[in-house]
Amino acid sequence: MDKNISFTLKVWRQNGPKDKGHFDTFQMKDIPGDTSFLEMLDILNEQLVEGGKEPVVFDHDCREGICGMCSLYINGHPHGPATGATTCQIYMRRFKDGDVITVEPWRSAGFPVIKDLMVDRTAYDKIMQAGGFVSVRTGAPQDANAILIPKPIADEAMDAASCIGCGACVAACKNGSAMLFVSAKVSQLNLLPQGKPEALRRAKAMLSKMDELGFGNCTNTRACEAECPKCVSISNIARLNRDFIKAKLKD
Amino acid sequence: MTKIIDSKIPEGPIAEKWTNYKAHQKLVNPANKRRLDIIVVGTGLAGASAAASLGEMGFRVFNFCIQDSPRRAHSIAAQGGINAAKNYQNDGDSVYRLFYDTVKGGDYRAREANVYRLAEVSNNIIDQCVAQGVPFAREYGGTLANRSFGGAQVSRTFYAKGQTGQQLLLGAYSALSRQVGAGTVKLYTRYEMEDVVIVDGRARGIIAKNLVTGKLERFAAHAVVIATGGYGNAYFLSTNAMACNCTAAMACYRKGAWFANPAYVQIHPTCIPVHGDKQSKLTLMSESLRNDGRIWVPKKIEDAKALQAGTKKGSDIPEEDRDYYLERRYPAFGNLVPRDVASRAAKERCDKGFGVNNTGLAVFLDFSESIERLGIDVVRQRYGNLFDMYEEITDVNPGQLANEIKGVKYYNPMMIYPAIHYTMGGIWVDYELQTSIKGLFAIGECNFSDHGANRLGASALMQGLADGYFVLPYTIQNYLADQITVPRFSTDLPEFAAAEKAVQDKIDHLMNIKGKKSVDSIHKELGHVMWEYVGMGRTAEGLKTGLAKLKEIRKEFETQLFIPGSKEGMNVELDKAIRLQDFITMGELIAYDALNRNESCGGHFREEYQTEEGEAKRDDQNFFYVACWEYQGSDEKAPTLLKEPLVYEAIKVQTRNYKS
Asked: Virtual CA dihedral for B213, B217, B221, B223, nearest 10 degrees?
């Protein structure tokens, strides 16, 4: 059975994008090990509300690691200490009695803070709108099995497509680059026959939009891959770069 | 009864109804489409696919979601797959068989014509998604792969690892993004619909709260489409996401849209059991696990007691002392019986004392046999991500060898228990997916029509996309064709001002209660009452007690609620409070319907109505109808019942049988 732990929690508070922001410190007592990290924040918020204070605002929704809503640095790591897991999938048994746990919002020019730990990630939607699709109308396309796709290609596309759009790659990157996110979507579509006709245009359009929105460029530090909760590989970035160069050469 | 319910089912044999409808419906020409505005609330599978399709057709679309991006909608969490009648496996599947299985799975309480149409367009969905680049699982030859799901004897489920919902939603989201980029759809993220605005008897707009600024805003359109999901969070603990709510649906209900079959709530058999009182949600383990996992409890009560006391582990109990109760009771379908049947069977065993964890509310899902048969690598390939997820939450690795008794290897079993998962009931709609309010449509989980009293696995994704891509874009034109001469509306109309003021008054009222209890603490109490009295096993007496307790909870909410902060700016506690108020009303609605329906069918099980073997006992003589509830002007008043009689032409109504 899991033991209960007590620890110090330092949480970033910021009342809007223009506010300077500060850390609030809380003493958390007797938290069961099978509590999820976000449930631990629920406990904190319940205590704050009971004391008449405003709760800590943070993004969260599905709490099963798939919606991509949760977005916290825990002790400096996007999504905390585990590999291949989102913040909502971290359980308190990973921490020790007496720990100091620091919680911050994503810090990147592309993701301004809305309040406390909640940031604005609409830039990702805008990058998608620039080219993250196959231009096909709703209607009656050909039979699904008319397009044969070798299993290894389908699997590779699926691995790239597993990106949840959480923003951890940008948060982990010293340049604030969204290359892993962009390359995951470009790879998924450009690998598949359905995405080939627009492949080069897609790579160029999504990258230009990324630049325009103030994200930095990639210098191959691989921090994004290390922190990605879905273990999306940076080989996708290499593929994106190839397609981008091909597109440029054609200009 | 004075009101006659017209479900507008087209004439003709069942297989020709939809074709006939499409051939004769009214259309809107391209120049007029540009002049017509449509509001779509929600960006899940139904909402995103509808907004994308309508935008692409040339309508001006306003699309709203409560999250920061359309891609977060809870459709994303669906794991297992999506059904379609492709018959790629050559195992005897057909549109008729998918239709039949869905009607039977729904315990003969769905609307026949709607279900046939659903089965008919199921194949188009797969074609559409593949064309969009959805990376479905494939065979080495390059063709699409399939797996089996509960309630079917064929393999018709298409999947993308254990993330099918995610991939389908991202497909719809990409189509939506394309339209946003093209300027046909305008997106409003972090907006929550608080009310629908009715002008001269037609839905003409919504009042939405900007969740960042806290301000109420008005939006007008020629038609309003609700795609806001189900009401499972009325039970507090469910597999739904934290923000899933029924506020938009309740707003429509209060404005006169009938609410149909609220008692049909699906309880999913394979969820990780409840552990402590701080838990915020329940995690689903995909139904696909039942392809290779075997469900059991001990045969001997002393073994169960030892498991509950923690002195024995599942792997200590040898094969001959295990009761694979689903295989025993339902030899023909075994572990792949429909969800309602599997959930009730688990409850039955646990009620008899055979539960396997410290609360006595859990059964085992065991992979020992399949790991021995297929090898751990194959099993991990199929379910690796689910095994990892299970281990992170429970600290137990289900793929790990734990014991060997008399030469038989036993691996750690998973523990599972049923949990609230999906709601088959919803806003009443006719064949055109239009509610009882003109110009107001409901699609996806938030309507009621296709799943009857129980939904089969892998059918929710199918219905969401069928409604959004292939049904609503046609049927809404039949309505809008009459609206082409209606100019765009001004949000200065008195109807908009009145609706906004009503929402503002409600917010002011909630802020001013200034009691001592947090939203979550009251929501938890609501959840306990709902699970205890309106849950898996219902009785008339229990439901009456439940209704009385719900009244107490409403009173507590009205007098004890405390919301910190102010109504200006972002206030998540205020937003949760508004949702909770609607969950309480929803809870009462479920209880009223459950009390009225003196029979057991699908997800609705009344303990008074069961066979000697403990199976659900329907009463087709008296309850072969859709129960539509009409609001009576106040949340305090009981709603009035209207009945839509069910008419079955193609299928013979009979007792569900999964035994032989």
From this structure: 80
